[in-house]
Specification:
mainly alpha; Arc Repressor Mutant, subunit A; two-stranded antiparallel ribbon; 6 helices; 45% helix; 5% strand; elongated
């Protein structure tokens, strides 16, 4: 499983929005231009972000979007879950199991553990962390070779 383009674009757009002066309305075309993202795609994503209560919008010539909450309280996990249909590394439901009748496949626990780590990582980081450069990769490529 890899994070879909919806999640990546949504996080990028939300970080851009969080970097604007507080309360300022920002148009999606401004975000699209600054981040080199497709405007039509952002329009679809921001409908979902608004429904999730992460952004507010104002219509009209002076309209645009702003964060609906403090950037310190918006978790990256919330953004991704608002726009992605599902974020999981396992191919089965924990209730039903991978195999019939309700049994787990041989690698289920590996993928479930990875899923738990990714969700925790995304839950621990906020828009404020990203905006202020407080998110760093925990494994360096040299660590992978030891």
């Amino acid at each position: 499983m890899r994070l879909g383009v919806k999640g990546r674009y949504a996080v990028t757009a939300m970080v851009d929005l969080s970097g604007q002066p507080e309360g300022r309305l920002v148009t999606l075309s401004d975000i699209a231009h600054r981040q080199n993202l497709p405007l039509a795609y952002l329009e679809q994503l921001f409908v979902k972000l608004r429904r999730a209560g992460l952004v507010e919008s104002t219509r009209g010539p002076q309209g645009g979007y702003r964060l609906a909450k403090e950037r310190q309280s918006i978790r990256i996990e919330e953004i991704i879950c608002a726009v992605e249909e599902g974020l999981t590394f396992t191919a089965c439901s924990t209730r039903k199991g991978c195999l019939s009748p309700g049994a787990k496949c041989l690698t289920h626990d590996l993928w479930q553990g990875l899923d738990n780590h990714v969700r925790r990582y995304l839950h621990l980081h906020t828009l404020d962390d990203l905006s202020n450069g407080r998110v760093h990769a925990s494994l360096q490529s040299r660590d992978m070779h030891t």
